[in-house]
Structures are given as C-alpha cells and as structure tokens.
Write a structure and sequence with these properties.
By secondary structure, the protein is an all-alpha fold. The protein contains 16 helices and no strands.
Length: about 475
Amino acid sequence: MSAIARKRFTLKGAIDRIYGVQYMLKPNQWHGEIPQTGEMYQNMLRLAWPSALESILISLIGAIDTMMVSALGTTAIAAVGLTNQPKMILLSVVFSLNTAITAIVARRKGERNQDSANSTLRQGIMLSAAISAVLATLGFIFAKPLMLFAGANSDTIAMSMVYFRIIAISVFFNAVCMTINAAQRGAGNTKISMKTNLLSNVVNLVFNFLLIEGRFRFPRLEVAGAALATLLGSIAGLGLAIASVIGHHKFLYLNFHDKWRFDKYTIKTISSIGGSAMAEQVFMRIGFFTYSRIVAELGTVAFATHQICMNLINMSYSFGDGLTVASSSLVGQSLGAKQPDHAMIYGKIGQRLAMTISTVLALIFFFGRHFLVSLFSDDPHVITLGGIILIIIALTTHAQTSQVVFSGCLRGAGDTKFVAIVSLISIGIVRPILTYLLCLPLGFGLIGAWIGLFVDQYTRFFCSMLRFRTGKWQHIKI
C-alpha cells in the first residue's frame, strides 16, 4: 500500500471515529439495533436546517435592522439596544412555558399520543395569551423606570422609551406565536417555525425601510418606525402560526369545538417542567440584564460597539440554536419511544455538527473582523475595538454552539432543573461579577465584558457536557 493510500485510510478512519454513530456509545449503553450513520444524520439535518436557517435569517435581519437604525446615529443604536434585555425579561415566563411545551409534545409524539399533544398545545396557547397580555401592559406602563434601570441616560432615555412601548405591545403577538412554534418543534415540524419567523422578519424589514426614514410617502418615524415595523411583523407571524394548526389532517391541530378551559393534569405536567425552566429564565435574565447594565456604564460609543458585536455573535448562536431544536425534539421523541440509546446518539450528532460549523465561523470572525464591524459603523474607534472583541468571539464560538446543543438535549429530556442550576452559577453569578471586576475596578473596559462572556460560555459548556455524558437525563419521566 502506498504512503498516500495509507494516509487516506487513516484520515477516513479518523473521520469515522469522530462522526460515526457506532463509536458514540459505550457497550453498556446499547439497547437494541441502531440505524446507520447516514440515516441518523439525515434525521438530524432534516429537522435542524429549517431551525438553523430560521435563526440565521433572524440574526441576519436583526443585523440589517441595526444597520438601518444606525443611519440615525450611534445614540439611536444604543437606545434601541437598551430595550433588548427588558424585552427578554417580559418574555422570560413565555420562554419557560415553551421549554415545557416542546419537551411534552416531543415525548407525546414518541408515544403516539396525539390527544395529549393537542391538549398541551391548547393549554399552552391559553397560558401564553393570558401571561403575555399582562406583561405587555406592565411593560407599556413602566417603560421609563425599566429604561432607566437598563442604563438609559439623558441622550437615550426618550428614544428608548418610545421604542420600548411599541415593542411591549408586540410581546402579546410574539408570545402566542412562539408557543405554537414550540409545540410544532416538539412534533418535529421545524419548517413551520422557520416560515412564521421568516414572514415576520421580512415584514419587519420592509416597514423598517419605509418608516425609519420615511420613504414612498410613508411618515418618517425614526426609532418609532423601527418598533412599529417589529409589531407588524409579529402580527403577520402569529397569523401564519395559527394557520399552521388549522386542519384535522395534521398531528397538531386546533379544534375550536374542543374544551378550551384549563386542564389540571396538563397544567401540572407543564408546571413540573416549566417551573425549573422559569428559574433558569430568571437567573439568565438577571445575569444578562446586569451584564448589559454594566456595559451601559461604559458610555454610548462602547455600548453601541457592544451591540454590533452581539449581533455578530448571534450568527454563531443561530447555528447552534438550529441544532438545539433538532436535538431537543429527537431526544424527546426517542425517550418517548423507549430508545434512550438513540437519544444519546442524537445529542452527540448535534454536538459534532456544532463543532464543525463553529470552526468555520471562528475563521470568518478572526480574519474578517474589521470588515464585519465596518458593515455597521464607519467610526474608527468602533471598528478597532470591535475587531479586538471579534478575536474573543472567534475563541468563544466552539463552546457557545456546543453548550446550547447539550443544554437543549437536557431540556428536551425534561432535565430542566440541572440547566437552571448551571444558569444560576454561570450567568447569574460568574458572568456579572467577573464583568464588573474586569470592566470597572481593573479597567479593561468593554474587553473585560467579553472576557466575562468567554468564561461564562466555557463554564456552561463543561457543565452541560459532563451532565449529558452521565446519561441521568434518560430516566426522567414526563
């Protein structure tokens, strides 16, 4: 055998060792016949690509959204950026509800229990509508104190209040849409969520173009126009989401003749998973809010640079998020079908794909760092500082994508309590404390904030990876 042939053989063997499903389980973890590697990867990619494309498009359109707002100046970027965490706080209860909805519907799909899956969908819609209506009202009324607490100053308070009040109204439509999409993801219908979010964001983009600067006889509304575009996009997305569950020929469907009142058993099941997910959201939102608040103290230019870099790292998260949705759904369905070995393999396939994609993204972030930042701003200070931060992002992306996949698998299995504990430690404690120390007393400024994010991502990565490897999540009953 020639040296070239031996090299090819060795390379193929190494690739098989990394990606082959036959190497992903220990002998005591096999419980039956395992499908071929190609078949399992096809199952993963069939669910992952719509979710990944959805997340990428959302991030891309969000980045374009920021570019459009940037025409109004650095202050406008900062003002809009200040509303992100308060909006996430309003939606945090709905996020935890949706985590439970996805896990339960996935398990019921594996058990082939269609009635219970549809009951979960109805309960989720009613809960989401009631909760989001209250939160939207509170957000509208208390916009000013929320913006001041988020770090708004005399330059940004007026614009951020105008933007946030309109965004608060969109929370209702956005929340109900997300709950329907969460159920669809659990059932493996990831294309539905992609289509609703694509429509929502295209509508948002079109009205951004028309309303921010007032084109084609539309009024010039500036940041209010950007917020109104988001509201119109949310309404359009909800309409398509509702249409996706109309019709009895689908696994998930809404029958308006069924009982539309709260069911004690289903609510109890949702609460058992959603309670821990809610704790996770609380810890995450407190941590993210505190983190954003510390960065806001560094000044308008630093915060605007931070927002630009957050848009870019969200592109990395988008790929991981798509794989997370697929992994969570397949893990839940496999456990419902009494196939824990399949569940373990799907989680590992998701992580392998995440690492591969992250390698490509890391190279793009590193070598294209100044060009990427220049797409958002021509300020030389912003470009220089953003370029340094993108080096940190390049070093972070592997941990980020892998940890969201592992955490998604644990949530899909119902192991939300462990994920909540990790969020408390890493996001609620480690990231804000480290960020504060590095940014202010030690004088690292914005770079210190991104070092804090780097440590947080690797902390969550190692914790979620070790938990996944134990296999304890395979024995959780839903």
